[in-house]
Amino acid sequence: MVRSSLCLPAVSASSGRGAGGEGNPGISAYADFPGFCKAVTLKEIQAHGHVLTPGRYVGAEEIEDDGISFEEKMAELSAELYEQMAEAEELDATIKKILRCWDLVT
Q: Which 3-state string (H, E, C) describes 30-64?
């Protein structure tokens, strides 16, 4: 996903570089972005015991369900991983063979 605007920290508007992008050409106004950034109040921070772990506030980006079960996805990804690992072994062997030809590896 491409995001066209930046998430900026809240800064006093009197500074000329506020969260709305004042004084910063090309930067759009601040907006919360689930899973990435969120402006919170002191009251919210107090409610979390002053813990500033971002996940407590920004949450997670909503993921669209593609209808494929976890088990099916995991099996597919595991098969792909094993194929890549086998290919990596073949490539390692080829590299070692070439290096041996140059007497760079014993």
A: CCCECCCECCCCHHHHHHCCCCCCCHHHHCCCCCC
* Residue type (1 letter), 65: D
Instruction: Classify the C-alpha dihedral 22-28-30-36 as positive or negative.
Output: negative
Classify each residue of 21-42 as buried b or exposed e, where b means 16 or more C-beta atoms within 10 Å of its C-beta. Answer: beeeeeeeebeeeeeebbeeee
Per-block average pLDDT, block size 10, for the chain (106 residues)?
42 46 66 88 92 86 87 97 98 93 80
pTM over 0.85: no
